[in-house]
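Field log, afternoon session.

UNIT: design team B
ACTIVITY: writing a sequence onto a fixed backbone
BACKBONE:
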């Protein structure tokens, strides 16, 4: 299983995924769980997914969905089986990463997104109070997702 933190630390709450995986990586995890901070390196993430042969990939990212800032989400995205979305290395959001995996001839396996509703994606370093206050909750939630997915046996 791959747990991938994505986001831009220079855009406020977009750094959510990076901070969550930083804290998760400091904890003891099962040997079959890899945790990496990919930041804005979406193409690197796509190649990692191709090379790693992961049954499950969990992306951790800020996910604006119109909820209250700090709300946590578990999303199972619908993957485009035809891979028609063209990858754009300059805006590698999770959908673009998955399209890149497909365009490169691979399959993504099971993909989940642990997301957080951002308060601000404006240029600044540091998370808003609403998002910072749920980072530890997100780490706990992510550990629960990891255990549930491992129990599935994918």
């Amino acid at each position: 299983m791959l747990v991938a933190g994505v986001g831009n630390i220079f855009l406020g709450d977009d750094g959510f995924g990076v901070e969550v995986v930083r804290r998760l990586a400091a904890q003891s995890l099962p040997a079959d769980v890899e945790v990496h901070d990919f930041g804005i390196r979406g193409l690197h993430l796509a190649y990692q997914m191709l090379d790693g042969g992961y049954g499950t990939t969990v992306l951790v990212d800020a996910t604006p969905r119109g909820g209250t800032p700090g709300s946590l989400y578990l999303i199972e995205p619908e993957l485009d089986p035809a891979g028609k979305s063209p990858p754009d290395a300059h805006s590698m959001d999770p959908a673009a990463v998955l399209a890149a995996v497909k365009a490169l001839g691979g399959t993504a396996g099971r993909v989940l997104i642990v997301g957080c509703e951002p308060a601000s994606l404006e240029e600044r370093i540091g998370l808003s109070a609403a998002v910072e206050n749920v980072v530890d909750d997100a780490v706990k939630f992510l550990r629960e997702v990891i255990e549930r997915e491992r129990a599935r046996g994918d």
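LOG NOTE: Residues 20 and 135 are 6 Å apart (CA to CA).
NEXT ACTIVITY: expression trials, pending approval
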